[in-house]
Design brief:
Blueprint lengths: L27 E5 L3 E4 L9 E5 L3 E10 L5 E10 L2 E10 L22 H7 L4 H9 L2 E3 L5 E8 L3 E7 L2 E5 L4 E7 L3 E2 L3 H11 L7 E7 L2 H4 L2 H4 L1 E12 L2 E13 L5 E5 L3 E4 L6 H10 L8 E12 L2
Antiparallel strand pairs: 1-4, 2-3, 4-5, 5-6, 7-10, 7-18, 8-9, 8-18, 9-12, 10-11, 11-13, 13-14, 14-15, 15-16, 16-18, 17-18
Helix pairs in contact: 3-6
């Protein structure tokens, strides 16, 4: 099955690891020194580019094919980079007599069959690579993170808002914390932002909301191999001086070695009654002309984490 999610240029690697026994099926190995396009079929100019192989790749070639334009194509079963093996099923143009691709990518010359020792090393990620992935902490990447909430007024008017200032971290042991600067609320209307800050959130007394959580390292460990997992995450939300425990379904994605994303699998409902904010909501309603506002909000988030420096 063609895996179409492994796009290193977009920062996404979602290929599954091969079994070591599959290496023997290769006709020969090909060293690819530059970033190279992988196509769904060997058809000059007509195939769909489905992935970009990174440089320093060792590819398993299953067969050759010549197209109508006289180009030779190699079908790949898997490739390895830094001793990690990824399944694919696609075609790269062979170098012999083939002009460079428009973006300057090219395929290096075909090499002899890879020694058995090298195949064994590439059949699975080195334990040190996996250990290194989980050994350091992670810091929230504010520029690539967002937290949105929805309000409903007059029973039918739905509006989406967000917070622009988030900070956070995850320790190697799985202890996570995200802080939300409530003054950074953004609704698209300046006067409404001011009213929310001082009437609803009371930022002078409660400037931040805090989310704390604890990941189970034994369950998160599978993220290294599977690239994406679903996880029921117990969190504690603290806002307006009140803390409440919630169970939040999340999707955790490994977007290469330098980025991990945690996103809500479905909206999480937060109620003003749970955090003693009914009076603030009433003041907000009165300030807007006694407009009825639904006392609960669906919250969604996409949080990106990079290795802690």
């Amino acid at each position: 099955m063609l895996i179409r999610q492994m796009m290193p240029a977009a920062g996404v690697i979602a290929a599954m690891l091969c079994l070591a026994g599959e290496a023997g099926a290769c006709e020969f190995y090909e060293a690819i020194d530059s970033r190279t396009e992988l196509f769904d079929k060997p058809d000059a100019g007509a195939g769909l580019a489905v992935a970009i192989l990174p440089e320093a790749t060792q590819a398993c070639v299953m067969e050759e094919h010549s197209d109508g334009a006289g180009n030779t194509w190699h079908r790949l079963e898997f490739y390895t980079v830094a001793n990690v093996k990824y399944n694919v099923d696609g075609w790269v143009k062979a170098p012999s007599g083939a002009p460079p691709a428009p973006d300057g990518t090219s395929v290096a010359a075909v090499t002899a069959a890879t020694p058995e020792s090298a195949r064994g090393e590439a059949s699975a990620p080195e334990p040190s690579a996996k250990a290194a992935f989980f050994s350091h902490g992670w810091s929230l990447d504010k520029a690539r993170s967002r937290l949105n909430f929805v309000t409903i007024k007059k029973g039918t008017v739905v509006e989406t808002h967000q917070f622009g200032d988030l900070t956070g971290s995850v320790t190697p042991g799985g202890e996570a914390e995200v802080k939300i600067r409530l003054e950074s609320v953004s609704t698209g209307i300046d006067i409404r932002d001011v009213r929310m800050r001082f009437l609803l959130f009371d930022v002078e007394q409660f400037p931040e909301a805090t989310i704390t959580a604890k990941f189970d390292p034994a369950q998160i460990d599978s993220l290294f191999d599977n690239a994406q997992i679903s996880y029921e995450l117990p969190v504690t939300l603290s806002i307006h001086g009140v803390s409440k425990e919630l169970m939040v379904p999340v999707v955790i994605s490994k977007l290469g070695d330098g980025l991990v994303a945690v996103s809500s699998a479905k909206p999480v409902t937060v109620s003003t009654a749970d955090f003693n904010m009914q009076d603030g909501l009433q003041k907000l309603s009165e300030a807007a002309g006694d407009i009825p506002i639904t006392p609960s909000s669906p919250v969604t988030f996409e949080l990106a984490f990079v290795p802690a420096s």
